[in-house]
Amino acid sequence: MPLVKMSTLLNEAREGGYAVGSFSVSNMEMVLGVLKAVEETKSPAILQIAEVRLNHSPLEIIGPLMVAAARNCSMPVAVHFDHGKTTEKIKQALDIGFTSVMLDGSHLPFEENAEITAATKLLAQKYDADCEGEIGCVGGSEDGSEDIAINCTSPVQALEFYKKTNVDALAVAIGNAHGNYKQAPKLRFDILEETAKLVKAPLVLHGGTGILPEDFRKCIKLGINKINIATATFDSVEKSVRTAYENGAINGYYDLQTAEVEGAYHNAIKHIEIFGCSMKG
Ligand code: 13P
Fold this sequence. Notes:
8-stranded parallel beta barrel; globular; alpha/beta; 281 residues; binds 1,3-dihydroxyacetonephosphate; TIM Barrel; 15% strand
């Protein structure tokens, strides 16, 4: 199965009433772990990396690796540039072959966000790639470096934003936040339902780590078709390595590598099952 466009996966998910997991990765082991889960569950998936993570994983190195891994997978996999901040990096991702990009203008005034997102959509189109935008503010920040306050999406504004930008996927803020929640969030399902009634595009839930399985299922029922998972994968990899050391299972570098792959694999399997996308590849 070739590398695919995000819109192909999300439109099928919309029809089928499930969500596709968009898993953040930062090295080859995480990519291998996610794709092992994808192959085993015969599920579609999205591999993603956010611009703030590039200090640790340079785009010119991790990007081609992600694209090659997607091409090599027997299931449909899209490769996404998450929380793009600069046109320079978004363009670099598109040049590398990413099949979708997100411009995160959620912190900007409405008009500016709409304008810069619409321009990114036009740029992505030139590469036959897709564009995600965000309206409202998801809390925290992708790498935990900023404490951005939650600002729930206004459904009416979401519709206006969609009309102005024609994005292929729209991220909404319904009380969700990046990173580990201190307690399970109280999601605004009413806002999600209203937004989904008005906006005829697949909706995206950021801040997937720590959301309860029943809340994920409810979000999917109400119109979420892409769910971003980052912290849970990083935590699962770290825990898998720590446990393997504690159990004396690491006797050299390749055992360490195996533990990393397994950590990413177990986290992806868990979410794929909850999102209802196994056997949908
Ligand atoms: P978490 O780190 O909370 O899983 O959020 C991931 C995310 O939304 C990436 O865009």
